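tokens incoming
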């Protein structure tokens, strides 16, 4: 039992180290050997031993993040799906809250957002397949609730706007601290006000009347 616990502790340490390195350096600049070394393990092949290969590490990092975000996402969307057509604001809040909460908790939340930003910017086939495997069902659920909230918006237009929304959500949340150093100075409000500003922005883009 003690050895199993030690192994799980080592695995978790390697996983958090990988998350930090990917967040700082991107996906391509981090080797399994570098992860093992930075985690402080004696075995230079420890990451390979616990996760098999690079994709195994990436998949496990995604799992670490979704273990935190998915309960909130599930609770919100089950409520939307079981009720009458939701307001656009309700859908936007349900989509955004799990990610925006990562700016506050857990301790590695901001790194998780930067990691996700790198991940979504990578268009290599293996990463696209990885993202589809983990998030396609979620995106389909989001689309369905947006369609209920905006029944007059064509699906093709809705999907393009949803794609823009997800890019802005992930990259915006990852870089939120840049608001403290802009050409206008420090314009970052408190977290609650910032959250509502962000919801205003996303809701406005999704719900704007088509111009053609």
């Amino acid at each position: 039992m003690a050895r199993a616990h030690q192994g799980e502790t080592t695995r978790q340490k390697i996983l958090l180290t990988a998350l930090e390195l990917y967040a700082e350096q991107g996906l391509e600049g981090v080797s399994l050997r570098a992860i093992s070394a930075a985690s402080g393990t004696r075995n230079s092949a420890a990451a390979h031993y616990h996760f098999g290969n690079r994709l195994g590490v990436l998949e496990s990092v995604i799992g670490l993040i979704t273990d935190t975000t998915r309960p909130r996402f599930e609770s919100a969307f089950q409520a939307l799906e079981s009720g009458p057509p939701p307001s656009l604001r309700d859908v936007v809040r349900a989509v955004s809250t799990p990610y925006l909460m990562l700016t506050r908790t857990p301790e590695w939340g901001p790194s998780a957002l930067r990691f996700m930003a790198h991940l979504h910017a990578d268009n290599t086939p293996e990463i696209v397949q990885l993202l589809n495997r983990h998030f396609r069902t979620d995106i389909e659920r989001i689309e369905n609730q947006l369609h209920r909230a905006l029944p007059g918006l064509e699906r093709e237009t809705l999907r393009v706007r949803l794609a823009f929304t997800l890019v802005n959500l992930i990259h915006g949340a990852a870089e939120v601290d840049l608001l403290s150093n802009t050409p206008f100075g420090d314009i970052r409000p408190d977290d609650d006000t910032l959250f509502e500003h962000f919801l205003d922005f996303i809701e406005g883009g999704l719900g704007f009347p088509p111009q053609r």
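note: The two ends are 65 Å apart (CA to CA).
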